[in-house]
Amino acid sequence: MHELSIAHSLVELAAEEAERLGLRRVRALYLKLGVLSGVVKEALQFSFDIVTEGTSLEGADLVIEDVPVVVYCPRCQEARTLPEPMPMRCPVCGTRTADVRQGREMELYALEGDEGDGKDAPDRRDQTERSQKERLFG
Amino acid sequence: MPRIVEIRQNVLKKNDYLARELRERFREAGVYVVNLVSSPGTGKTSLLRETLLRLGERYRVAALVGDLATENDALRLRESGADVRQITTGTVCHLEAEMIGRALEGWNLAALDFLFIENVGNLVCPASYDLGENQRVVLFSVTEGEDKPLKYPTIVNSADVAVLTKIDLAEAVEFQRDRFYEGLQEVRPGLPVLEVSVRTGEGLPAWLSHLEAGRRALPETASSR
What we know:
- The complex is a heterodimer of chains A (138) and B (225).
- Chain A is an alpha+beta fold.
- Chain A has one domain (2-117): hypothetical protein PF0899 fold, CATH 3.30.2320.
- Chain A has helices at 3-21, 41-52, 122-137; strands at residues 25-34, 61-67, 70-73, 78-81, 100-102, 106-114.
- In chain A, the strands form 2 sheets. Chain A has a 3-stranded mixed β-sheet with strand order 2-1-6, with helices on one face. Chain A has a 3-stranded antiparallel β-sheet with strand order 4-3-5, with no helix packed on it.
- In chain A, helix 1 (3-21) crosses helix 2 (41-52).
- By secondary structure, chain B is an alpha/beta fold.
- Chain B has a single domain (10-215), classed as P-loop containing nucleotide triphosphate hydrolases (Rossmann fold).
- Chain B contains 8 helices and 8 strands, in the order βαβαβαβαββααβαβα.
- Chain B has helices spanning 13-29, 44-55, 72-78, 97-103, 148-151, 153-158, 177-187, 204-216; strands at 2-10, 32-38, 61-67, 83-88, 114-118, 135-141, 161-165, 193-195.
- The chains are: A alpha+beta (138), B alpha/beta (225).
- At the A-B interface, helix 1, strand 1 and strand 6 of A face strand 1, helix 1, helix 6 and helix 7 of B.
């Protein structure tokens, strides 16, 4: 169970990037997670909520997109998506291949947040935050 | 206004960055680094102790050993006469590049030919963390059953070589080699496998030759010039 470590790294990276980009409030993190990344999605979601508690990312959504394994088949000379992480065989011709092109990633690919330095339009921001919370927590 | 900004950064980019720095340090020092990963009880420490003893006759060898708690493994490994440092991780189930960097403080890497890193016994988490090693070795023992590779595809997929240990017990536990190799092929076609028994010494010469060949294949370095 190293998802807690991963969640720490993710939150640290997201907070840094948000600051660099001048995002005032992060509403969602979009993560690409390869099925060969060794990370359990549910455990990461759970760890994320714990790690973000009391930080600037508290309440942000973690949106995880599963990335299937893509191998290169030397026989077909094509990249092929595997329906399951195993076996490592071309799903079309059955040739074995260890040439993994995709499916190991653990990538923060986007952040969703509010722009600005926090000085402008405070009223509207409050409203947005309220409606966001209502949307999230009913 | 809310907006979505593309980031496209590896979540473990800090570890990857530190691992790249370590790899560069190892290269400059001319030391060959091997990361050993397996379940608890596969026999990493026994194999490593024997490896340090035998390679130590001809090379300058050292080891870093990771465990949640105790210095027991380091004590065992020091019996070989090699320089050994223990990394106790507390609750962390794997080694990270940053821990390796800290453990190496004050160590003259140029005075080494081989550095072994014995990871925390765990077949899941160490897969995600590059430690700057030249080679990642995944170990399975015949006593763990034939389907271990199928159960842990991620780590097998990240390994450069597999070692099957305790082969002197294969018959006693009715280990089915065919099934083991078949499973390994499904997860990582073409992965080289070495079979060893520390007790009988079987397979050890091939394992040592494999390590020596790896070291010989290193690009020319500052220390060997």
